[in-house]
Amino acid sequence: MPIPSPFHSRTSALCHSMLWKDWAGYYAVRYYADCHEPEYFAFRHSAGLLDVTPLFKYEVHGPDAPSFLARIMSRNVAKLKVGRVTYVCWCDDQGKVIDDGTVSRLEKHYYRVTSAEPSMHWFERFRRGYDIQIEDSTTRLGALSLQGPSSRAILEDASDADLGALEFFALTPCRFGHIDGWISRTGYTGDLGYEVWVRSEDAEAVYDAVMEAGRLHAILPAGLDALDVARVEAGFVMNGVDYFSAHHCLIEDRKSSPYELNLGWTVKLDRAPFVGQEALRRELESGSDRRFVGLVIDWDETERLFNSYGLPPELPLSAWRDGRPIYARDRQWIGMATSGAWSPTLKQNLALAQIRSEFAEPGTRLQIEVTAEYRRHTVTATVASLPFFDPPRKRA
Q: Are 194 and 95 in the same domain?
């Protein structure tokens, strides 16, 4: 049975839909009112406030914290400056991704790691010989994500932080009244946004402060359905959906490397040894079998297909995650679309996919399976560069 996050007294009072999901063992709202769309548009035009406490959080500190994390991460986080955040993944010895997340350097020898799955067992596996302490701070800390064009103004009103000076993927200590916390310029929507980190006992007061500051900015509480559409537009990969942790895969073909997930930019090979380094070096030299790409599904063909049955086009109300086969023009199977959504901003039917590398060039026309009136068909899906949506304000 899920447990409530430290913000649950506030989110449950606002959740009139009564629709919840289990996210990493916590209650998580799908959407608050009649559907997710107002919350999605808050992300894109004002601000949406999401409880992201279920992210697994770990405090790693001690003299050897930089070298320890550099040993187990694909990125050399020892070079990360204090006050900066970086996106990372970590791999097994075969260079296959176990999980992805963020690392924040709070002090010289103090880091915070977030992950989608429990990771303490992996950290403990490599800690021998390192002078470090590792704390699972998931329940000790509450986390909020405020995303959208108005997020900066709202948090500046709610806290003492000067966010105009806070760079993309940086963080700063702050105070919400008398409450200490942290604000990082991070998020999962591909828009201007921030994440707030506070002690669990201060969570309700901070939630109230942010909502009050956002009242004149049309803030809305937001749930996971709206986030899922936004992250598809942003081209962000999701563990358990767009790839599977190597720890959970029964067959090798289900495992993915950072290069296959469009995360090669997180891999730094020319440094001291780290887990998976040699396998990743070999893959870089030989090339990857698969690539993670965006697809734009042809709307006119979709409409004609359904019209042939006397039906209007049918699309899921929210983002989908059930997987769709992808074919080359000669009907050869070349991969799978792993998730997708209709983009209200771009007015396009989008998908994220893992496909064979030789078909991954932007502009390549492929075929995606579509079911109409219980019959399987295909329509054109064109490979597109990621992200689909990348507003300048995200980094401004």
A: no
